[in-house]
Design goal:
Layout (H helix, E strand, L loop, with lengths): L2 H5 L3 H21 L1 H9 L4 H24 L10 H19 L1 H5 L5 H12 L14 H16 L1 H8 L4 H9 L10 H25 L4 H12 L17 H14 L3 H8 L10 H23 L7 H16 L14 H13 L12 H19 L9 E4 L2 E4 L2 H29 L2 H12 L15 H16 L1 H21 L1
Antiparallel strand pairs: 1-2
Helix pairs in contact: 2-4, 2-5, 2-9, 3-4, 3-8, 5-7, 5-10, 5-22, 7-8, 7-21, 8-12, 9-11, 11-12, 11-13, 12-13, 13-16, 15-16, 15-17, 16-17, 17-20, 18-19, 19-20, 19-21, 20-21, 21-22
């Protein structure tokens, strides 16, 4: 084995990473302008507006320095290893810069600000800020971080930098495993346009239903991004309106549906679309989960046995949790344990691949159960009989190889192991299994439903574990594993050289 390639990136790869990081910093600095505008319009305290202005200046200067320091002539195509490490690192770097307003405004200390920002950009939604209702500038920034986090940092990067082979690797390294067109640059532009269209549709619908412009923008940002941050201390009064519930469910479903499907619909290519395994799996799981929760609520006498009320809250919570959004129309902690546990299980499922949702993803769940079925079938067939393994996805029959099945199963096992390890660590500090398992599931599923345990007073080790869970839930286990392997091998190399 060539250990040099395993444990050391080439100098030009590091320069390329630095150059691309500079571009991302410039984009983030521009995205800090809306909170500044909101702070001025709604008369936020002066120190809050200044914190965003200073943060934008620091971030933009950092970007200019990095782009200038590592010039285009020094760039090279990133290897898959370099792409995965860059994706892992860029989310940490952007969390640092996104957390600057929280630090400079005095809202949080640097580490808690990093936690807050990582929770935002990974569309998780946990918050350590003690105030339940945030100032306008802070509220807009929290919603906006979820919006561009749902879009994907690499997608933002690919839109503004020249196309290259390494960018294609970056596209896949961030978990975008499918393309709408052969050209990655074109695919990212389509992705951005679709995302913008969904955002505009959401804002218009909310305005029609009576929300003001600020509310409409924030709720759209967090619904389409399946982030779930609410500008209010409780969502209940907003979701008292059935119409708002319906619009929110509509946006959550759009955000958690594969964007390739959105593209096919807009192009008019709807033939055989309903045969897609992800759409079918989403419909089946939402239907079964809603029915089970309805039965649980009804038999336990909730909502005075009002079937319509039970239905609206059941389907809303199923879609909210499964899409990894985390909006709540009712206090689900007060629901029967069966209903609550079922909702926690749905956080593992998530939405489609190439969507804004977290979780294991529907495609992988389908492969898991199909592989079990195929294995049982092979046991019943005569020896040496080869049975084709196919699924219908993106308007065509896909051949599923044993290697694909192996990769998916390893991913799912790794995901569950990280969840179990996280639960174990949290349990050591909180001494409550229900709390530890719930917090870990919500974190790795990027479903930030408010839990009393989440606060700035949590032990630092718990915060570190949750940050890793946010990370894994958003960008998958592979960048994390490669990053850990890279650090281990670099450390071993230095020890041997000494």
């Amino acid at each position: 084995m060539n250990t040099y390639k395993l444990n050391k990136l080439k100098p030009n790869e590091l320069k390329t990473i630095g150059h691309y990081t500079g571009y991302v910093c410039l984009v983030i600095s521009i995205l800090m302008i809306p909170p500044i505008i909101c702070g001025i319009i709604y008369n936020d305290p002066e120190h809050l507006v200044k914190s965003f202005i200073l943060s934008a200046i620091i971030t933009s200067i950092s970007g200019i320095i990095l782009v200038s320091l590592f010039r285009r002539k020094q760039l090279t195509n990133l290897s898959l290893k370099g792409s995965l490490i860059f994706v892992l690192g860029i989310w940490a770097i952007i969390a640092i810069y996104s957390g600057l307003p929280y630090v400079l405004s005095g809202q949080l200390n640097p580490f808690d600000a990093f936690f807050e920002a990582m929770s935002g950009i990974t569309t998780t939604g946990f918050s350590l800020i003690p105030e339940k209702t945030h100032p306008y500038s802070i509220a807009m920034w929290k919603a906006l971080t979820q919006w561009f986090g749902g879009l994907g940092i690499i997608v933002l990067l690919l839109v503004i930098v020249p196309s290259s082979v390494s960018l294609k690797r970056l596209f896949f390294a961030e978990g975008r495993t499918e393309q709408m067109t052969p050209n990655v640059k074109h695919t990212t532009m389509i992705f951005l346009k679709l995302y913008a269209i969904l955002t505009v549709i959401g804002i218009v619908l909310y305005l029609i239903l009576g929300l003001d412009l600020f509310e409409a923008i924030c709720f759209t940002f967090t619904s389409v991004a399946t982030g779930g941050y609410s500008i209010y201390s409780s969502d209940a009064h907003i979701f008292d309106s059935i119409a708002i519930q319906i619009v929110t469910m509509f946006l959550m479903l759009l955000g958690s549906t594969n964007f390739v499907i959105h593209y096919r619909i807009l192009k008019g290519n709807t033939k055989d679309l309903l045969k897609d395994v992800e759409l079918r799996a989403m419909f089946i799981i939402v239907t079964i989960a809603t029915i089970l929760i309805m039965l649980s609520l009804y038999t336990n006498g909730y909502y005075n046995h009002d079937v319509l009320q039970i239905f609206r809250h059941s389907i809303f919570q199923v879609i909210s949790v499964m899409s990894s959004t985390g909006f709540v129309s009712q206090d689900i902690g007060a629901w029967p344990q069966f209903s609550f546990f079922l909702l926690i299980l749905l956080t593992f499922v998530g939405g489609s691949i190439c969507s804004t949702s977290g979780g294991i993803k529907l495609y992988n769940i389908v492969i898991l159960f199909k592989s079990i079925w195929w294995e049982v079938e092979e046991m019943m067939l005569p020896k040496n009989t080869i049975k084709p393994k196919r699924i219908n996805h993106d308007k065509k029959e896909r051949e599923i190889t044993d290697k694909t099945i192996k990769t998916v199963l390893i991913f799912i096992v790794s995901y569950i192991l990280i969840y179990l390890l996280s639960t174990f660590v949290i349990l050591f500090y909180c001494n409550d299994f229900a709390t530890a398992s719930t917090v870990a599931a919500l974190s790795i599923g990027n479903t930030g439903i408010t839990v009393d345990y989440i606060s700035a007073s949590m032990p630092i080790m718990v915060k570190i574990v949750l940050i890793i869970d946010f990370w894994v839930g958003r960008i998958s286990v592979w960048p994390l594993f490669l990053g850990v392997l890279y650090l281990i091998n670099r450390t071993e190399s230095k020890i041997k050289s000494i």
